[in-house]
Design goal:
Largest interface: A-B, 36 and 36 residues
Number of strands of chain B: 17
Largest sheet of chain A: none
Number of helices of chain A: 17
Structural class of chain A: mainly alpha
Number of strands of chain A: 0
CATH topology of one domain in chain B: Immunoglobulin-like
Shape of chain A: globular
Radius of gyration of chain A: 23 Å
Oligomer: heterodimer
Largest sheet of chain B: 9 strands, mixed
CATH class of chain A: Mainly Alpha
Helix content of chain A: over 70%
Distance between the termini of chain A: 18 Å
Order of helices and strands of chain A: HHHHHHHHHHHHHHHHH
């Protein structure tokens, strides 16, 4: 950071402009496209033959698709955490992290919307949700808040990009004419006048204020999809707060991973410094402890009472079929990252990257555990059901579509990082100038 | 001496392990072929049907096998005696009702043998299963004495031209409910006495019935080796009349979309209009920024 003070605006611009993919970048993108292609092929099969290609049934009617949906909604919440909360709290070190978190938010919420359509089985009926939707249904609330959050996230990314678009238009020699043409179409009208700057700043502040309640709504409503149904494991008044805290944790973990990867791939060590990892590490520990606290509440209280239907569900999680996955999610997703990051040495980039990856992987399995085991244990007795309905393991089509959607999120982030600076050039320069002695 | 003892112990452990491991493998592998089952049902003393089932042992549990063709015959497997053919469903079962063409045979005989036959295919060997049943009917009735209501049932087999009550038969006497039968009395099953009569005191005075207070009493004999499965129902006005009150046209959380509660509509629409109003306002601001940009360009050009 000290070294950054010696950098000229030209040097900062040159460092932060979008860069062409190297060999590794090309391979990475091709691999993602391939995984997406396999997912698309599996989805075409699902469209052709119907949801029968999945292993979902009368009981586990929400499988890996909805687990993925909850995961995407959770990770998208990071846009509001880093951009909005940090901006309103005037956190001075936020600049290198905001664009990354906005990109993650936009890509994750895009695929959250798409995966719901995949789960519907009959995508042509999506329009019916809007034409004949019942406002009484939490599913309808989810549709409304997801589309709202998508628009707000996109607006936030776009408005904060405007000054950088001007900079990129000016750097057409370095970026190439087709790119310059695209940037002119996107935001060529931005001249950086006082009037424009005033409206832009006010718009960003408005968006930051609006996005926080909407972000809380999106994940609270998603939790209500579960909590408003009467089932073991979901019958909780705590679910909204439990989901929001988990979402902040996975979002922060996702940002840490992205920070590390972009720092390494684009050589941004002077911009994303150890100080940023240290600060994010402290936030990660706090969020992991908070989520752990909610987990203790969610499992300890019903386990203490051990009502019969809850007992079957909890036994399956603690020592039954899902125990390895459950303890993996608890230890890998929360406890071990806390133990790593709570010490200053654990807040160094490499250790933070490992902790971030653990949090994200643990969070994905946690969502799977929230959805599936509960569906296997309805309160009403299973009546005249085939034996296979007592178990659920996703079919290859489900795995392919789920992995394709995860690759899709990464692909959107990759494309956005190729088109736009992952750190705001304009904000970095203005921050830098304000720090210089007058 | 101690070493010798250890050797013996190790040999014993190895022997026991091998013995039980071998047994478990033998059990699993021996039962891995499909098992064909056959059961006889007589509902309401009317047309009987035969239920066939195909299942296979996977690990330590039986899983249904679907899609297997099974033919059912009466007496033997000659073509004239074919009652019908079926393919087992996803839960591994199939049903064949007694066709009308066999009515004469049914009326004249008192004991029947049914044979299920599954042909061999690429994966499965041919299988047959048979069941012999005596023709019987189940009769349900009610008795009221001194204000005490009871349910009675009798299983009667055909002897010559007469129907004779069978004694010592175990049967269930229940009340039909949504997800199964509730026992009429305190016991799960009732056994017919020396006169062939099974009696259960009715102990559910305030049992909700239909709009007229009717409930359905059920007597059933399950998987009897001689008589198969028989079930018979009787409607009695012993329940509490239940008038379902319809709230279908009221505004509620469970009504149609057009009848959402006003408070919910107000809150939901208030939030939606507030947030989307802000979004449209911000989009308008973008157009203002655009306009300011074009004006700036014009000023520069001038």
């Amino acid at each position: 950071m000290e070294k950054l003070k010696k950098f000229s605006p030209e040097k900062i611009t040159s460092d932060l402009l979008p860069q062409k993919f190297g060999r590794r970048g090309v391979i990475w993108t091709i691999v993602l496209i391939l995984i997406c292609g396999i997912g698309a092929f599996a989805y075409i099969r699902q469209l052709k033959y119907g949801l029968v290609v999945t292993n979902m049934g009368d009981y586990v009617s929400w499988g890996i698709y909805i687990s993925n949906f909850v995961f995407f909604v959770a990770i998208s919440l990071v846009g509001s955490l880093i951009t909005a909360i940090f901006r309103l709290a005037d956190v001075p070190w936020r600049t290198p992290l905001t664009r990354i978190s906005e990109m993650i938010a936009v890509s994750a919420i895009t695929f959250a919307s798409l995966i719901i359509i995949v789960d519907m089985g009959r995508p042509e009926r999506l329009l019916n949700l809007f034409l004949h939707g019942r406002i009484q249904s939490p599913i309808m609330w989810d549709v409304v808040v997801i589309s709202t959050y998508f628009c707000i996230s996109l607006l936030l990314l776009y408005i904060t990009l405007l000054p950088d678009i001007r900079i990129m238009i000016n750097a057409k020699d370095k970026l190439g004419k087709p790119f310059a043409k695209f940037y002119r179409w996107l935001g060529g009208y931005w001249k950086g006048t006082e009037g424009q700057e005033k409206i832009r700043n006010r718009s960003i502040t408005t968006l930051c204020i609006v996005i926080i309640p909407v972000a809380f709504c999106i994940h609270t409503v998603t939790s209500w999809l579960f909590a408003t149904t009467y089932r073991p494991g979901w019958d909780s008044t705590n679910f909204g707060a439990y989901f929001v805290s988990g979402a902040f944790l996975v979002g922060a973990g996702g940002v840490v991973v992205a920070m590390y990867v972009f720092r390494w791939a684009y050589k941004l060590e002077h911009y994303i410094t150890e100080r940023h990892f240290d600060k994010m590490g402290k936030i990660l520990v706090m969020l992991a402890l908070l989520y752990l606290y909610f987990n203790v509440n969610e499992y300890l209280v019903p386990a203490f009472k051990m009502k019969k239907p809850e007992e079957e569900h909890l036994t399956m999680l603690f020592s039954g079929e899902y125990a390895p996955l459950f303890w993996f999610a608890i230890f890998i997703g929360m406890i071990i990252p806390i133990l790593i990051v709570i010490f200053p040495k654990g807040r160094k980039p490499n250790a933070m990257f490992i902790a971030g990856v653990m949090v994200v992987i643990g969070a994905w399995f946690k969502r799977y555990l929230i959805v599936t085991p509960t569906l296997l244990h309805p309160f009403l007795p299973k009546y005249d059901a085939p034996a296979k309905f007592n178990h659920y393991f996703p079919s290859w089509e489900e795995w392919a579509i789920a992995m394709g959607s995860l690759a899709g999120v990464l692909l959107i982030i990759t494309i956005l990082a190729r088109l736009f600076p992952v750190i705001s050039i304009y904000k970095t320069i203005t921050d830098h100038e304000s720090e210089l002695p007058s | 001496m101690k070493a010798n003892y250890h050797h013996k112990l190790i040999i014993a452990i190895v022997f026991i392990t091998c013995f039980f491991t071998g047994r478990s493998y033998a059990q699993d592998s021996a039962a891995s072929t499909t098992v064909l089952g056959i059961r006889y049902f007589l509902p309401e003393n009317k047309v009987p049907y035969i239920e066939v089932s195909t299942k296979k042992k996977v690990g330590r549990v039986f899983e249904p096998v679907k899609g297997l063709p099974v033919s059912v015959y009466i007496t033997d497997t000659s073509a004239d005696n074919l009652l019908g053919s079926t393919k087992t469903s996803s839960n591994g079962t199939g049903r064949i009702a007694l066709p009308p063409s066999f009515k004469a045979a049914w009326d004249s005989l008192g004991e029947f043998t049914f044979v299920a036959s599954m042909p061999a295919n690429g994966k499965e060997e041919a299988q047959t299963a048979e069941i012999t049943v005596k023709k019987a009917i189940l009769v349900i009735d009610t008795v009221s004495e001194d204000g005490v209501r009871s349910v009675t049932a009798q299983l009667k087999e055909k002897v010559g031209q007469e129907w004779v009550a069978v004694k010592d038969i175990e049967m269930k006497l229940g009340i039909k409910r949504a997800l199964g039968n509730l026992s009429v009395g305190e016991d799960e099953t009732y056994t017919a006495d020396t006169t062939g009569l099974a009696i259960a005191e009715f102990k559910h005075d305030s049992m909700p019935g239909d709009a007229k207070g009717n409930i359905f009493l059920v007597a059933r004999v399950d998987d009897n080796d001689t008589y198969g499965n028989l079930v018979v129902e009787k409607t009695v006005p012993w329940g509490k009349a239940h008038q379902a009150e319809s709230h279908f046209w009221h505004r509620s959380l469970w009504s149609t979309g057009g009848r959402a509660p006003v408070w919910l509509l107000t809150i939901a629409l208030g939030i939606i209009i507030g947030v989307w109003g802000t979004i449209f306002y911000l989009i308008r601001q973008m157009f203002r920024i655009r306009k300011l940009g074009h004006e700036y360009e014009k000023d520069i050009a001038v």
